[in-house]
Amino acid sequence: MTTIETGTVITGVLGHEFHYARTPEETADLVETVLNTRYSQIYVWDRPCLSFRDENGPSFPHARVRITVAPDDGWGALNHMDARPEAVNGEAVDSYNPHATEEMPALLFDPEGQLFFPASASLPLDQARQAITEYCRTGQRPSCVQWQPGQWY
């Protein structure tokens, strides 16, 4: 069997639509699109992710970043999940804003249900942009923001 080197593919699931980025320019555009879409997920892999609607789908890596934004209010929240067997008990963490106040918006974690991020997960969009960009570049939990324990939803 022949393997073709594809490099890294960033898959953005915005609502139920799959978007792919392979170049730095496409990735920068995808990050900005994510920051203007209320609910998204980002996967970094050596191939495109596939929906269950695809002939060979579903197909996803073990880790992802889930993003909820309130673009008009300037806030976003992130959840990093890593379900690899070698991850200790798996990992589910939410972004953490040590300067959070009671006035922080409650951002919806799951558009299909009534699950919300804690208010302390709300970050200014510039910080969310930095974290999403870092994740797209490294495929690892971003280190440019702080994290707090999350839940497996």
From TrEMBL:
Pfam families: Imm1 (PF14430)
Superkingdom of the source species: Bacteria
InterPro entries: DddI
UniProt-recorded name of the protein: Immunity protein Imm1
Organism: Actinopolyspora biskrensis
